């Protein structure tokens, strides 16, 4: 390392900035190859193989209470497996017991077992992650977003409720700009335009200074406050008690006019909805609905007469509303009405700008116990996630001419734990539990097709997140000793990109879809980890006084895409074109590497005298390379380095080769 690099690292460490050079606990991770192959559809065979690995192998070196099934990563196709032990001594004992063993699965399966630490030694020293390397890497990955120069703003909330505003760029890292004292708990509006505080009956809105630009003074004490997605209105909900009777009140305030513009009360609340679900605005802020007893009323917010006017648009008779949700980009409202006893429930889609007699509605009947509505980001499809007495099923309802629908059923006894759409709405992922297999299973499915869900993996997961604007999703699972695992998975390739363990205090995606910020609370303090959306750790900063993180766009208007712009992005398929280019480049690189590999292999064949040892070395190296590719794709390495290391290792007792001889071979190989 040059003097300049040493000085730069010393300076960064003084500022509590540590660029990640870690491949932590690699001596605790054991990789097994040459396991029996499985057919993905046969879940029973998968469970049997997993059970044998746990009972006949893992529990031979560790205690039952110290081992969880989530510590095993076993693909549905079998053949390879990774086990994360709690101690390096357990991993070493495991390797000693089972490497080159045929006692578990028979003579046909000569198990090859090693640790990740040993694989790393084969590669030589890991390359240093400098800022410039990361910047180049990120720019190549995110050309399809056309936002290479956009700065992301990261706001850090301190224990004293002050706001530390920082800029983050992949090349230069985190740079603090200023600190704001906003006096109170800090919130952020949906699009990130405003920061706001709620204190002493006042809601103060801020831009980039500690001087409020708007102040809304409430006329009464309220129970719940929401700022609408369009950032134009504040909706306040409250429950009042008068003479042993409950009354519910809603007030709407205009942010920019700084005054109340609407107020209403009612006495009957839906048994299935929260108070704040009785009045909700659409994403554009042009309509809102209100539920009063069995009546659903639509209101229009009009500015045609140069002043804000609320117009009662139309009304609908609705009974026992169990779920209700606006479309993200269009004026459609999905409503699910639960019927009593064993009568069918009713699902309806409404438009607020049409009166009840002109509505072209879609209505479906269902026999269900529970319901959840999830819209695609483009607002063209809504999913009805229903729990029946037998299983979970998902009905995808398209908002098109004849309202076509598709249906997905999961195995009997299954229940849905989480469900997410990708940004381009082409894929969805589901987290399913069942009575037969209490450990959740992740399924991936293409939307708007007849393809069945594909089982990805079973693990002790809690939550799924899709990285904005990419086809990568993040699985949050249970780790070792109370930590959480954060795993990045590529939907298109159906493979892991990276896995980390954190004690998560805060977790938030950058609105541009580039970065993920995680506050990791450890015994030695709190660390801020910034990762890109394919799982590369970009920066680690010690931030002991920070309790929360909030990403905020700098060019905030640039995020307000119209429906036409969203459709254009989806039609042009920026992401797929980018991935196709990367696949072509990867194929070319692999072809060139194969040619170099063959030339070097021929040179070694001439240099060494024992063909059997050479063949054995080549096979051993090939097994390990294939193992790395299948289980840990991030540990890519140069073929010739592995090949030379392995062949030299297996021939060192047979023949000797001097440094000058090897230098001559390398010179001939490069000619």
Count of β-strands: 41
Overall morphology: globular
Task: Enumerate how many helices there are, as a single number.
Answer: 10
Oligomer: single chain
CATH architecture of the domain at 17-123: 2-Layer Sandwich
Low-confidence runs (pLDDT<50, min 5 residues)? 16-23, 123-149, 558-562, 628-666
Strand order in space, largest sheet: 1-40-39-38-37
**Would you state the CATH class of the domain at 17-123?**
Alpha Beta
CATH topology heading of the domain at 17-123: Alpha-Beta Plaits
Q: CATH superfamily assignment of the domain at 17-123?
A: RRM (RNA recognition motif) domain
Q: Measured on Cα atoms, how large is the radius of gyration?
A: 29 Å
Q: Overall mean pLDDT score?
A: 74
Helix and strand composition category = alpha+beta
Strand content: 35-45%
First and last CA, distance: 30 Å
Largest sheet: 5 strands, antiparallel
Helix content: 10-25%
Keywords: Cytoplasm, Initiation factor, Protein biosynthesis, RNA-binding
GO molecular function: RNA binding; translation initiation factor activity; translation initiation factor binding
InterPro entries: EIF3B (IPR011400)
Protein name: RNA recognition motif-containing protein
Write a compact overview of the structure shown.
The protein is an alpha+beta fold and 671 residues long.
Describe this structure in words.
The relative contact order is 0.09. The strands form 10 sheets. This protein has a 5-stranded antiparallel sheet. It is built from 10 helices and 41 strands. The radius of gyration is 29 Å and the shape is globular. Among the domains are: 17-123, Alpha-Beta Plaits (2-Layer Sandwich); 576-670, no CATH class.
